[in-house]
UniProtKB/TrEMBL annotation, chain A:
InterPro entries: FAD-bd, FAD/NAD-bd_sf, RIFMO-like
Positions of region (Disordered): 421-440
FAD-binding domain span: 27-363
Organism in which the protein naturally occurs: Ruegeria marisrubri
Protein name: FAD-dependent oxidoreductase
A GO MF term: FAD binding
Taxonomy, superkingdom: Bacteria
Automatic annotation (TrEMBL), chain B:
Pfam families assigned: DUF2783 (PF10932)
UniProt-listed InterPro entries: DUF2783
Protein name: DUF2783 domain-containing protein
Organism for this UniProt entry: Ruegeria marisrubri
Length: 540, 65
């Protein structure tokens, strides 16, 4: 049986652009048909923005790669029409076990908070994720949406101009030139676009190597995350075991920096390591082996004129905490509504600078968290190893030490505190829904809150009066009127009101809070809408 | 904000000091280092207050403000 990653999913086809007498101008070109590029394209196409995806390959990625998807990205994928297949296929897990040396030191239960439509995490091979995204592209195409994926279209050169970008593309049938008003570079950690523009990463650099293996086995390991510090089968390093669908198990073995990658990847070297880890008697088949090298760093700016970087092309983190693909999806979620407004002339181009502000904030948070995990997992000095081992030894006996154990702080969405799009907080409400926060889900009488917010500006009123629609300078805001009476579990009240009697929230298309107040005040809402769309810079 | 206590605060200091030495008796350098590290973490958790812990870190570094 051929595997999904062996079949071309978007085979090369000749485009009329290749025979055009002059370069054809598109609205948006996305470079890279990985998860982030496809998510960007789907988001734009759903909003009616014409978009072409160029990719030098024609298949989904080989091997499991990004494997852990958090709740917020699943909510974003719901909006993009691909959340359900992810959750249906993915494996949910809540129990984690931590091993140190030759023994288990403790186990934890993530105990995800109740009252969310989506689970805290699922595990799923990246190739399934990409397949669902490609399926969604096909679905949109069938509905007539302006979206296209061009396989085996390799970007060779890029020219930037004040009002457009020119791209030289190579194909199996020769080169052609194409243009776009905007280009989104989602071409991965080694981003060729970044190199072509002479831009590089800045910030802290951390380097390590991980042997990543997908193993097919009929084993009765439970659906749990197992993390080893300094295990007998990988001395001085770490190891991670994660279950994926189809009896595929993902194993990450840390190897350190100074190694011979080609040698470590050979099955005769990999299999003994895995046998030492899984037990001599366990039967398994090796599906995929790779050596993963990471660096923790980001670009100084994600927007360079009409070229905008997203995902790994813009920032890289260590694998601890599942912050790569998860943060990339939050990039495009942040970017696409802004780009749509700019393309429609409903917001100034400078709105896109808030993408830089907000997602650099997100990237820095991810880099900080993943660097701290890395420092714990790979102590840099004798004393940091002594302290790390002390934490692990204590964690076996005393609960207090367990929060200090850091095998990866799992991805949570960031709050855009201090964003120029936020209005001052006018509600004495819960901290978690302050301006800049991603809206937490809540169960309603009929379904959940987040699908009701959709992907447009919304005025959420809870036991407060307001007009059904407000239009401010081309931006239409629709009211979603709720009451604590429609709140069977009281979670809406707990998450959005706190001690307040009523609330009015202005919510952005990416479901982040822009402003909130106890009641509707037309002037301040209009001001908040202008501010959230980059039209006001002074505070109230 | 409460202040770190830097005046004598331990009853029978000689007894405490003897117990501290005794805890390390017979241990090799690695075992003693590990014990000290665990002790620091246990005490730090008991204190909990981050501002006291910051003051303690400064005091232990012997750097005058």
């Amino acid at each position: 049986m051929s595997k999904i990653f062996e079949v071309p999913l978007y085979a090369y086809e000749r485009s009329p652009d290749q025979d055009a007498p002059a370069p054809v101008r598109h609205k948006v070109i996305v470079v890279g048909a990985g998860p982030i590029g496809l998510a960007a394209a789907i988001d734009l196409a759903q909003q009616g923005v014409e978009v072409v995806v160029l990719d030098d390959n024609d298949k989904v990625s080989f091997g499991s790669r990004a494997v852990c998807y958090a709740k917020r990205p699943l909510e974003i994928l719901d909006r993009l029409g691909c959340g359900q297949p992810m959750v249906d296929k993915g494996v949910e897990w809540n129990i984690g076990k931590v091993f140190f040396n030759d023994r288990q030191v403790y186990e934890f239960n993530l105990l995800p908070e109740e009252g969310h439509q989506r689970p805290a995490f699922i595990n799923l091979q990246q190739y399934y994720f990409e397949e669902y995204l490609v399926n969604r592209v096909r679905e949109l195409q069938a509905e007539g949406a302006p979206i296209e994926i061009r396989g085996r279209n390799k970007v060779e050169a890029i020219g930037t101009h004040p009002d457009h970008v020119k791209v030289e593309v190579d194909t199996p049938e020769g080169a052609y030139t194409v243009e776009a008003d905007w280009l989104i570079a989602c071409d991965g950690a080694g981003s060729p676009i970044r190199s072509m523009l002479g831009l590089d990463f800045v910030g802290r650099v951390f380097e390590d190597n991980f042997l990543i293996a997908d193993v097919i086995m009929e084993a009765d390991f439970p659906t749990e995350r197992w993390f080893w510090f300094d295990p007998p089968f990988n001395r001085g390093q770490s190891a991670l075991l994660h279950k994926q669908p189809d009896n595929v198990w993902r194993i990450d073995l840390q190897l350190g920096w100074d190694i011979d990658k080609e040698r470590e990847k050979r099955p005769e070297n990999v299999i003994p390591r895995l046998k030492a880890m899984l037990g001599e008697d366990v039967q398994f088949e090796l599906e995929w082996v790779s050596i993963y090298t990471f660096q923790c760093r980001r670009m100084e700016k994600f927007r360079h004129g009409r070229v905008i970087f997203a995902g790994d092309a813009a920032h890289q983190v260590s694998p601890f905490g599942a912050r790569g693909a998860n943060s990339g999806l939050q990039d495009t979620d942040n970017l696409c509504w802004k780009l749509k407004l700019v393309l429609d002339g409903k917001a100034p181009e400078s709105l896109l600078d808030s993408y830089d502000y907000e997602r650099i904030h997100g990237a820095d948070e991810n880099i900080l968290n993943s660097t701290r995990s890395t420092d714990f997992i790979t102590p840099k000095s004798d004393m940091s190893r002594i302290l790390r081992d002390a934490v692990l030894d204590l964690s076996e006996h005393y609960e207090f030490a367990r929060p200090l154990v850091n095998s990866g702080r799992l991805s949570v969405p960031c709050t855009y505190d201090g964003s120029p799009l936020n209005s001052a907080d006018a509600l004495d409400g819960p901290e978690r829904t302050r301006p800049g926060s991603p809206c937490p889900d809540a169960p309603l009488e009929d379904g959940f809150l987040l699908p009701r917010l959709g992907g447009k500006f919304t005025l959420l009123t809870i036991d407060a009066d307001a007009p059904d629609v407000i239009e401010e300078d081309g931006i239409e805001v629709t009211r979603l009127a709720l009451s604590v009476k429609d709140d069977p579990t009281q979670e809406l009240k707990r998450r959005y009101l706190g001690e307040a009697e009523s609330a009015v929230y202005l919510i952005r298309p990416d479901q982040h809070v822009a402003a909130r107040s106890p009641s509707f005040d037309e002037q301040s809402i209009r001001h908040a809408i202008r501010r959230a769309t980059g039209k006001e810079h002074a505070n109230v | 904000m409460s202040d770190l206590i830097l005046t004598p605060n331990i009853d029978t200091p000689d007894d405490f000091y003897a117990v501290l030495l005794a805890a390390h008796e017979g241990l090799g350098k690695d075992e003693s280092d590990a014990l000290n590290a665990r002790l620091v973490l246990v005490l730090a958790n008991h204190i909990g207050d981050r501002s006291i812990l910051s003051q303690a870190l400064k005091a232990a570094a012997l750097k005058q403000e």
